[in-house]
Amino acid sequence: MDATATELAAAVRAGELDPVALTERVLAGIEAADRVVGAFRRVRAEEAVAEARAVAQRPDLAQLPLAGVPVAVKDVTEIAGEYASWGSAAAPVETSTKDSDVVARLRAAGAVIVGLTRVPELCVWPMTDGPGGIARNPWQPEYTAGGSSGGSAAAVAAGLVPVAHGTDGAGSVRLPSAMCGLVGIKPGGDLLTEEGWYGMSAHGSLATTVADAALLLSVLGDRPDLARVGEPGRLRVAVSVDVPLTRAPVPKPLCEAVDRVADALAGAGHEVERATPRYGYEATFGLLTRWFAGPSEQADDLDRTLLQPRTQAHVRLGRALRRAGLVRPGTRERWRRRAAEFFADHDVLLTPTLAALPVKAARWHERSALANAVSSVRVAPFAGLWNLAGYPAMSVPAARHPNGLPLGVQLVAAPGGEARLLAVAAQLERLNPWPRLPQAGAR
Fold it and tell me: Which GO terms describe its molecular function (predicted)?
């Protein structure tokens, strides 16, 4: 889709674009492309057209921030008349009788829910596949679209929808955004936190532009002010490519993308220096225990014999950690104190989003738990600790790898810093512009 969500909503509000015609065009595009991309678990064709007709008749159409905009929703949240599968055969299939808060806000804003996007089972891994299909990276289909919001990332990067909802428990919005060349933002713990994963998970937005990411986040969070992206002012920017705990080497192209962004920020007048938070062993251990224990809590209410073998092993370890009392609030609080100490001297932290290059798209759900865990731990260490701290963080496109894959960088701010992150990202969008879609990047 060439037009942005911001542009589409403006055209619908002005009476220049019919929501029904727009929805039908989007559905036709999904029908043509998604058998390759693998973004959707379910496409709501008839329901979406009916919703578009209802939007077109609304008396407040001219005031709706997402008027007629087709939006994809991650397959983890309640939608009236649908069920959330969480990528699992063990999930209940009883349809919901009401919308979740975020879906209700999308509808109130005039959005049209065109489908539910594919996720890995229980949203555990940063690659999205299952018996029903594989979410592929639209830039390079032999690679994964990431996870766990991989279906949402694939849908937006392929131009099937302009924006998509995601959730992020340990990087699940930012990682696929980085892999697919998108803007993806996870708000802080005081905005849009959802149950599960011990409060680490939050709803977030994926888009091709900062304005669209801000617009969707403003609707999801019921924060209209976030849609008005301002200027960042002069900031103290810390730059680090040191992997938390292991200090494993980061591939050179990922480091070069960070350097490119750091140079752009310095050229814009920001105070830029090399500095790394005191991550420590304990914070990483606190993150990992919750990564295992969170899904195991969810599985308590499921028939575990129906889970994929990799998930069964993950859940067993999570249950053992819970029984041993190793999910401790103190680990989070001590990490929060160290993070606050760091951000007392810095306004924004710039890191790679990924610590390793994406893996190939494959039937990862048929591979061992160890293979999945190793791939997850290698790619995700820069992202997850900010879920543990409850800090807002986002991924912004920065460069291209020689193999054609997009490369993203992560921006982190202190609690309440969503507007600051969006302002910095918008400045980078002007200083270091990126192609919105693979077709544009090929020209």
Answer: catalytic activity
Helix then strand then coil, in percent of the chain rounded to 5, is 45, 15, 40
Instruction: Report which secondary-structure segment, H or E, holds 412.
Output: strand 406-412
Distance CA 331, CA 389 (A): 10
Please list the ranges in the chain whose pLDDT falls under 50. 443
What whole-number distance in Å separates Cα of residue 235 and Cα of residue 14?
38
Query: Annotated catalytic sites, by residue?
Result: 74, 148, 172
Q: What does the pLDDT read at residue 9?
A: 98
Name residues whose C-beta falls within 8 Å of residue 172's C-beta, 6 or more positions apart in sequence: 123, 126, 147, 148, 149, 166, 201
DSSP 317-361: HHHHHHHTT---HHHHHHHHHHHHHHHTS-SEEEEES-SSPPPBP
pLDDT of amino acid 441: 55
Q: List strand residue ranges (DSSP E) for 20-60, in order.
A: 40-43
Is residue 239 within 8 A of residue 203, CB to CB? The reply is no
Q: Cα dihedral sign for 7, 12, 17, 22?
A: positive
Cβ atoms of 46 and 86 within 8 Å: the answer is no
Contact 409, 257 (CB under 8 A): yes
- Is 203 within 8 Å of 194 (Cβ atoms)? yes
pLDDT at 443: 38
Q: What is the DSSP letter of 410?
A: E
Kind of pairing, strands 406-412 and 393-400?
Answer: antiparallel
Residue listed under structure tokens 């991309």: 37
Q: Residue 113 burial (CB < 10 Å; 0-12/13-18/19+)?
A: buried
pLDDT of 440: 61
CATH architecture of 5-227: Alpha-Beta Complex (3.90)
What lies within 8 Å, CB to CB, of 374 at 6+ separation is: none
| Per-residue pLDDT, 87 | 98
> In angstroms, rounded to a whole number, what is the distance separating the alpha carbons of residues 29 and 34?
8
